[in-house]
Design goal:
- There is one protein chain.
- By secondary structure, the chain is α+β, with helices and mostly antiparallel strands.
- Helix content is 27%, strand content 37%.
- The strands form 2 sheets. Strands 1-2-6-3 form a 4-stranded antiparallel sheet.
Length: 95
């Protein structure tokens, strides 16, 4: 099994994810490309101590970009939408 820091890379906090967390109790994370839904669920439950109802994942394809006169491509990355059980919540802004 992969290490926790290889599975959960960072939470994604944007306007869209803030609306999702407030209305539907869904939080969004950037996760490792090789991690699967079961590993993501176990990592969230272990790190934050909450119950996870469901996990949805998608691979965000990297964009082709120019770097001066050279062309290149950004890396692909994986996003996970995690729905928590009723009564559980996460707060990334308080420390």
């Amino acid at each position: 099994m992969a290490q926790l820091h290889d599975i959960l890379i960072r939470p994604l906090v944007t306007e869209k994810t803030a609306k999702l967390s407030a209305s539907e109790n869904v939080y969004t994370f950037e996760v490792g490309l090789s991690s699967n839904k079961i590993e993501i669920q176990r990592a969230i439950q272990e790190v934050f101590g909450v119950r996870v109802e469901s996990v949805r994942t998608l691979v965000v394809r990297g964009k082709a970009r120019r770097f001066g006169r050279f062309s290149g491509k950004r890396s692909n990355w994986k996003k996970a939408y995690v729905r928590l059980a009723a009564g559980d919540s996460l707060n990334f802004l308080e420390s």
